[in-house]
Design a protein that fits this description.
mainly beta, five-stranded antiparallel β-sheet, two-stranded antiparallel sheet, 1 helix, 7 strands, about 10% helix
Length: about 100
């Protein structure tokens, strides 16, 4: 399994081009913006036997979310779409 990492803390750390919404679990009706108070610090792409997972970690390194992709290129494209992280910004963290 290989893992790539990119630090997005200098980019304002919010999803720039994508918004995430979910059910209001506070007792209210409707949907809420899940990104309102979320700041992403680190992105990681993990290679698994079933594909690639793009993980988002918060300022305190808590796991915020992940998405599945068929290829490394697709995962990097998603990161570029959300956070404007170009493919050259990634570094190989673990080779194995």
């Amino acid at each position: 399994m290989r893992i790539w990492q990119a630090d997005v803390s200098d980019s304002g750390s919010r999803s720039l081009n994508v918004a995430h919404f979910g059910a209001d679990t506070s007792g209210g009706a409707g949907i809420v913006n899940l990104d309102a108070d979320v700041h992403t610090r680190i992105l990681r792409i993990e290679e698994e036997s079933v594909g690639y997972f793009l993980h988002r970690f918060g300022m305190d390194m808590s796991h915020l979310a992940d998405t599945w992709h068929q290829s490394l290129e697709e995962a990097m494209e998603q990161a570029e779409e959300e956070f404007s992280v170009p493919p050259a910004a990634w570094s190989l963290l673990i080779e194995g």
